[in-house]
Amino acid sequence: MLSIVGCSQETEQQKMLHQAVAIESGDECHLCGMLISNFPGPKGEWFRNGVTEADGNAVKKFCSTRDMFSFYLDPENTRNVTSILVHDMSKAPWDAPNDGYFVDAHKAWFVVNSSQKGAMGKTLASFLNKVTLKHLQVNLAVKY
User: Fold this and answer.
1) Residue from 68, 61, 57 nearest 22 by CA
2) What is the rounded distance in angstroms from the CA atom of residue 144 to the CA atom of residue 125?
3) Residues near 111 by Cβ (< 8 Å), separated by ≥ 6?
4) pTM of the model
């Protein structure tokens, strides 16, 4: 079964988007501690309200969209987030997400039940828009 979901709520937090930070070979997942670049699939990053400006500009990186949302959905974390970014998987192969194509997660579409695997098994495949997602599924016979 294929499920597609999207987030499109405009909030004050979204007006304060940060720039994506490249994922380096030694970067560890903020949730599980695994090396992020060792795994396929979309990754996530988020920024939070900080006590200081430096703290607010510190990025939290995640090895998969699943780990990122698991951490984000904790009520203690949700209220502090200012920006959430995910890879647009229509712009790169599954095994090599391109850090030049991070998009606002609130505007992205997600495939839930994808046949593709991420760092911790099944993950949420992220796409910038629904039209691209449909094109990949139907015209290119990509199975998600």
Assistant:
1) 61
2) 8
3) 2, 3, 4, 124, 125, 127, 133, 144
4) 0.80
